[in-house]
Amino acid sequence: MISIQIQFDKTSRTYNPGEEVVGKVNVQVEQECQCNQLVLIREWRTHGKGNKQSGGKQTTVLSQGELWSPGMVRSFRFRFNAPLTPVTYHGHYLNVDWYVRVKAEMPWGIDRLVRGALRHPRHEEEFLLLPEDQPFSVTRKHVKKRSFKLQRTIAWLFLAFGLIYMYVLAFGGSTGSALIGIVPLIIGGFILLWVIPRSSADKKLGEVGLLFEPTETRDGIVCKVRIVPKEEIHLEGMHATLLVREVVTSGSGTSRTTRRHELYKVSTEKEISQTIYPNLGLKASIPFKISKDLPVSLDITDNEIQWSLALRLDLSGWLVWKRVFPLRVYRGSQVPSIESRLGMALDSTEDSSLRA
Fold this sequence. Notes:
15% of the residues lie in helices and 49% in strands. The protein is an alpha+beta fold. The protein has 2 domains: 2-134 and 341-351, Sandwich (Immunoglobulin-like), CATH 2.60.40.640; 136-331, Immunoglobulin-like (Sandwich), CATH 2.60.40. A hairpin with a 3-residue loop joins strand 7 and strand 8 (94-105). Helix 1 (149-171) packs antiparallel against helix 2 (179-205). The protein starts with a strand and ends in a 5-residue tail after the last strand.
């Protein structure tokens, strides 16, 4: 019936965020037909090991209500600004690509996706959205305040059951295995041994502030840690690990499978032996050298690129404070909007006034 060809003015089809994308759609008519609408759709799609997702959809109407005759060749110009995010990404488990495709709506039957004749079998073309050549910018995601109330409650329940059982076994004339009482006592004791040093460290330290800045040489980031303890503490060491990984999920319900692939991991340790007072606090800088080829954060349902910082502070008295901070990393104007964090699910439609 018809064949379609999509051409970009830029033969490389590579664009930076915000750059204008210009091209044309050529339609060659082989049989007479009525076209209610010819639309161009711009969208991204994921593929790989995770559940497939799509978004960032923008529809441009190229033609409406035209009668096409055999042998006719029609050309329609299109233009739009390249989106900011997500950028094109080809990884281990996850890939993100941008596409331009054309859909012809005919008056009979179901809307047909025009796949073209043998000369032009494709009805869509891919274009590449490159990351900006800017330093990484990092912000810390909101993390709920940590509480150990549940773990404490579970520990005391185990201990109470074990003590009551052992008391009844010893003085109540009951017969049974002492192991039934000993096991809960051991479990409850281990839980308390895990909870007490962590909750004590949290109580002493309070909130730990983080601030990220690019290095002067633009080849990494500096994590600035600020500690203002609630009471006098002695800090004996600081250890930080920066982790970047793909996390994808496939399937649904009980058959969901999550795969993780480490893209980058670097650890650094600062030897500190210093007493920190509540009214003074402490500021420490931790530099990380990172490759400019690392991808920015991606938060699409079942398809994520996660950045995180694991921070450990060694305090006197065998106390250890540990926390993993999820990070949001972007470049230049690629600051994640609400739409991108929700998977860029918002669609838009516009009429094209650039028909040729």
